[in-house]
Amino acid sequence: MLHIYKTPDEVSHALAEWITTNIETTLQQQDRFTWVVTGGNSPKQLYELLAAAPYRERIDWSKMHIFWGDERAVPFADNRNNAKMTFEHLLDKVPVVREQVYIMDTTLSPEESAKAYEAILHKYFGNDGPSFDLVLNGMGDDGHTLSLFPHTPVIHEQKAWVTSFYLDAQQMYRITLTAPIVNRARKVAFLTFGANKANALFEVLKGAPNIDQYPSQIIQPASGQLHWFVDEAAASKVQA
Ligand SMILES: O=C1O[C@H](COP(=O)(O)O)[C@@H](O)[C@H](O)[C@H]1O
Predict the structure, then answer these.
(1) Which residues contact ligand 1 via a Cβ below 6 A?
(2) 239: CA distance to ligand 1 center in Å?
(3) Does the domain spanning 2-239 belong to CATH 3.40.190.80?
């Protein structure tokens, strides 16, 4: 489902409301909510909104269990670290239970970190694999999501739940959930805005299948819902 709003500000507000309502509704039926958060720049305003009234009070943070979709293999103190950004804009400001926050450990080697995160998921969800209540994704200008970058083998990973690889273009290791695990989620929401994403959004939603060029195309929940929250600038080619 495509949700289009005029400005990035409106997108962030609408998504804050949507996420909060989802959490409230889900927690009427179960006692925990598992949320995979995204990194990058796009979610900063959304996270600030969720950390403030009225959303902060509407969410039962004691029942929130937080995971990451991907991580840049840099120390936690590095500004590029996705977990650091999430703490600064959201988690440090809400009464989340620290033991229910599962960061990708970048003190380990990328390979060990991926294995350790997979072990965490096995322990938490059992061997059948996770089925997260919500996965929040971003999409880069190049159509990547999570750390599934164009023309990288991780796009096709079927066995591992979490994997790592060296991203030549950024001279950095990445750690990422793989597509099959994300596609088991009950709901996946993309947050995407800005004219620089218009081409990728068009190709992902309307273009011919080409997951190597536009990895976001691979995110198709098997039995869950897929939502795109975008602004008019990002949607300009889709709407034309
Ligand atoms: O590198 C990354 O980029 C994507 C997209 O970020 P955005 O700021 O352009 O929305 C992000 O979803 C991912 O977590 C991050 O590692």
Answers:
(1) 38-42, 69-70, 72, 82, 137-140, 147
(2) 24
(3) no
Among 97, 17, 98, 99, residue whose Cα is nearest residue 63? 97
CA of 141 from ligand 1 middle (Å) equals 9
Atom of ligand 1 minimally distant from the CA of 41: 8
Which of 139, 172, 196 most suits a substitution to test ligand 1, by most atoms within 8 Å of the C-beta? 139
Cα–Cα distance measured from residue 41 to residue 26, given in angstroms and rounded to the nearest whole number: 27
ipTM value for the complex: 0.98
pTM of the predicted model as reported, rounded to 2 decimal places: 0.98
- What is the whole-number distance in angstroms between the Cα of residue 30 and the centre of ligand 1? 30
Break the chain into its structural domains and give their ranges. Answer: 2-239
pLDDT (tens, 9 = 90+) of the chain, 240 residues, equals 999 999 999 999 999 999 999 999 999 999 999 999 999 999 999 999 999 999 999 999 999 999 999 999 999 999 999 999 999 999 999 999 999 999 999 999 999 999 999 999 999 999 888 999 999 999 999 999 999 999 999 999 999 999 999 999 999 999 999 999 999 999 999 999 999 999 999 999 999 999 999 999 999 999 999 999 999 999 999 998
Residue bearing tokens 């991203």? 167
For 47, which DSSP code?
A: H
Ligand 1 centroid, distance to 29 Cα (angstroms): 32
Where do the H-state alpha helices sit in the chain? Answer: 8-27, 44-50, 55-58, 82-89, 110-125, 179-182, 198-206, 236-239
